[in-house]
Amino acid sequence: MKIDLQDVAKVARLAKLRLPPEELETMAAHLNPILGYVEKLNELDTDGVEPMAHAVPMANAFREDIVKPSIGIARALQNAPVAGDDCFTVPKVIE
User: What are 87's strand-pairing partners?
Assistant: First the structure.
């Protein structure tokens, strides 16, 4: 599949990009080899190939959800730059 300048201009417009004509030509020159590679991949026989999310087998890396005691307010606030009333104090950002 070969992409022409009108297709590149349409995609740029849909992406809300303003590209000058020389950039449209450059973009078409960059996109054509990519689309050629994708077309070559479409020639592969993928019947019987299971879809996968990862190229290598993955095990669940999450730990068990175990209830543990809290670290406490004093420890949570010990590195806070400013604290007050058992809370982090931050500068006001809304007028």
Answer: 84
Count CB neighbours of 26 within 10 A. Answer: 13
Q: Are 35 and 12 in contact (CB under 8 A)?
A: no
End-to-end CA distance of the chain: 56
* CATH architecture assigned to 5-42: Orthogonal Bundle (1.10)
CA torsion 19→24→26→30, rounded to 10°?
110
Q: Residues 31-87: pLDDT tens digits?
A: 999 999 999 988 989 888 888 878 888 787 788 889 999 999 999 999 999 998 999
pTM here is: 0.47
Domains of the chain: which residue ranges? 5-42
Which tokens hold the place of 11?
């995609």
